[in-house]
Amino acid sequence: MIRDITVGQYYRTESFVHRLDPRVKLLGTFLYIISLFVFSSVPGFIVSGALLVVTIWASKVPLKFILRGLKPILLLLSVTVLFNLFLIKGEPVVQFWRFTITREGIQSAVFLVIRIVMLIVGSSMMTFTTTPNQLTDGIESLLKPFRIVKLPAHEIAMMMSIALRFIPILLEETDKIMKAQSARGADFESGNIFHRAKGMLPILVPLFVAAFRRANDLAMAMEARCYRGGEGRTRMKPLKYQTQDAAAFGVLTLYVAVHITCKVLW
Amino acid sequence: MSIILDHVSYIYEKGTPQEHYALKDINLVIPKGEFIGVIGHTGSGKSTMMQMLNGLIAPTEGMVLFRGQDISDRDFDKKYLRSKVGMVFQYPEYQLFESTVFKDVCFGPGNLGLDQKTVELRAFSALHQMQFPDELFYQSPFDLSGGQKRRAAIAGVLAMDPDFLILDEPTAGLDPKGRDEILELIAGLQKEQGKTILLVSHSMDDVANYVNRILVLNEGKLVLDAQPAEAFSYYKELEKIGLAAPQVTYIMNELQEKGIPVRAGATTLREAKQEILRVFSDNRAKEREPIHDT
Ligand SMILES: Nc1ncnc2c1ncn2[C@@H]1O[C@H](COP(=O)(O)OP(=O)(O)OP(=O)(O)O)[C@@H](O)[C@H]1O
Ligand SMILES: [Mg+2]
User: What backbone phi and psi angles, to 5 degrees, belong to B23?
Assistant: First the structure.
């Protein structure tokens, strides 16, 4: 179950999307998320879905792996669907006992599910295909213009990349702790909700202790190697746009253009 | 009452490109009362195999049997298995969580559904058995030194009174005295209480000194299952897979090459001493003989 969480993980393989400049992927994802909200109509979703399908295909990340990342949000999804189905007023379609399902309810539920799924899959496509290091470099480079307003671009990027880097480590750690406590007869599955919440304590305490220790060690290791922020720091692999990035920008422009055309025509 | 591994294999991250075998076709019988040493190069699958023995992970292929029952069966009582097969992990900091050491040691037996009094009695006796200093009983487990944490962690498992005790590198990072003390304590559990011990270790000398059977793992395969003297006679092969023999084995082999008629099978200091003394006394007897003749 713990291993099912794939959001934020990097999927190592060789593909067109993997080779793209991280800035392109960041901007693309940003644009894509905005488009999901601005163009939320049937044709809009078709266009967004098409881009997603093309990206998935070009990234060579197996569909099974991507879908696994959706499992943890199933509960959230079903709750939103239920709320939308029953609480939105409008033209009734089905009626039983005290509940009414309306046309508007169904529409809004379906739209919401599509939007959330595309949102999650779309943004995880970025992390599947970009290493945390590239991601930081990309974020930092994109935030640079905001330095005029005293935005600590480097620090923000560093913090984000560390957080991302630690997700798999913490998952692994949780796995180990759960095993060590199960070996001592701990039971995480049975009992009522209070019982289970209390049962989490033997996992959470060592996990937090380990996380703080790790943070401390990391800070120390960075100090020891004279880390002092981004001022005057050069890179081993400076970011440079390539032809393929131009192609990707082309695709993105086309994507926005098609969206706007659809919106105007419908 | 034994643990049997029948054609057991284990694959990590099945269904992803990183999928790989950690164990391959292991066949093994672990009867009661033995002291077994498990050695192997780092990444050879020792920890994976140990976790399988008390049902923390289920084999991808094959079966693990405890008392003749398949532990992957749906109706198999895992809690019972874990009370009988205790497991001390490689890093004890992964299991300490309570506000005091004593409470932490109570966690295991408490999960077995015993009454409070029995739980506390067991915790006390386990901490005493591990020679854990009395004045630290009510300290926070996070304030202990590495060696003390290790003792507390072992006591936490011991308090469940298992028949089989698995220890994954229990002496890593301890000073020589602490290491010997812990190994002596563990050996005592086997001799006096008849517990079966499985000891994963990177120290060939420790293994040779205490165990009566050695399992050698290499790249997930069980390549050797023998008594120490026999196992270490293959020291050249062991070296090829990143292992070695105890220091005395090398000394005895070199003595033999130099023409001194020792038998090279010694694996512990005591055996080596006896063997060398035997050769010396033989020599002396021979030297005396001609004098008697004339
Ligand atoms: N949680 C995991 N996920 C994926 N692969 C793993 C995991 N744990 C171990 N492995 C892999 O399985 C193989 C065996 O690992 P294992 O931990 O059993 O080795 P080990 O013999 O205990 O090594 P060590 O002496 O370093 O403790 C290794 O190749 C390791 O990379
Ligand atoms: Mg190990």
Answer: -135, 145
Distance CA(B276)–CA(B252), nearest Å, equals: 9
Q: A9 CA to chain B: closest CA distance, Å?
A: 13
B158-168 pLDDT, tens digit per residue, is 999 999 999 99
Q: What are the start-end ranges of the H helices in chain B?
A: 46-53, 78-84, 101-111, 116-129, 146-158, 176-193, 204-210, 228-233, 235-240, 247-257, 269-293
The model's pLDDT over A120-157, given as tens digits with 9 standing for 90+, comes to 999 989 989 998 788 888 988 898 888 888 888 888 88
Q: Does ligand 1 come within 6 angstroms of the Cβ of B22?
A: yes
**Coil, helix or strand at residue B161:** coil
Please indicate, yes or no, if residue B281 is contained in any of the structural domains.
yes
Cross-chain residue pair A177–B160, CB shorter than 8 Å: no
Summarize the confidence of residues B110-122 as an average pLDDT.
93
Is the predicted ipTM greater than 0.90, yes or no?
A: no
The pair of structure tokens assigned to A84 is 């939308």
- CA-based nearest residue in chain B for residue A60: B17
pLDDT digits (tens, 9 = 90+) for A181-232: 999 988 877 777 887 888 888 999 999 988 998 999 999 999 999 888 777 7
- Would you say residue A1 has pLDDT above 50? no
Asked if A209 reaches chain B (Cβ–Cβ under 8 Å), the answer is yes
Q: Which domain holds residue B280?
A: 246-288
Give chain A's mean pLDDT: 86
A58 Cβ partners below 8 Å, 6+ apart? A15, A16, A17
Number of domains in chain B: 1
The answer to whether residue B278 is domain-embedded is yes
pTM: 0.76
Name the residue range of residue A155's domain.
2-265
Is residue B271 one of the residues assigned to a domain? Answer: yes
The answer to whether B82 touches A185, Cβ cutoff 8 Å, is yes
User: In B, which residues are within 8 Å of A183 by CB distance?
Assistant: 54, 56, 82, 86-87, 89, 95, 157
- Sort out which chain B residues have CB atoms less than 8 A from A195's CB and list them: none
Number of domains in chain A: 1
- Residue B44 CB less than 6 A away from ligand 1: yes
